[in-house]
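>> received
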Amino acid sequence: MSQTTPHVFTRTVASPVGPLFLAASDAGLHAVEFAVHRHPVPRGDHWRDGAHPVLDATARQLAEYFAGTRRSFDLPFAASGTPFQCEVWAALTRIPYGTTASYVELARMVDRPGASRAVGAANGRNPLSIVVPCHRVIGAGGALTGFGGGLATKEFLLTLEGAWPRADRLL
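>> returned
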């Protein structure tokens, strides 16, 4: 008996931070990627441009987010990662809109206070940019640090949310 791999449907949508590549299947959202993405999700032969309700919902919710009327996302996620990466990505969804957390704080959120580097690496592999808010993680000193979409995009997103510039920002 042969098993068929479910189709993953893709679409690119315009946004204030440039085109965003979306991928979804019946299992949920697989990817939200910037035009230049440091760690793109591996694609397969079962990925193709097309329509899917999860893509429609993602495009609508992203438009609402950029319009300032949405603060959180209500989408089914189907991101692939290690158990540790998935744990970090779940913790990212608990950083409230309009706030930031340091890598050290994120490591504490996953009960691994000494693993801020590993947490940073997992954060950098987040396949669901914006909807899983890895942009809300900043350096311990309050500085904007690495971001797959670029620091200008990270600053734009944090400014949109009212989390940047920070009042306690170091000059």
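>> The chain has a mean pLDDT of 90.
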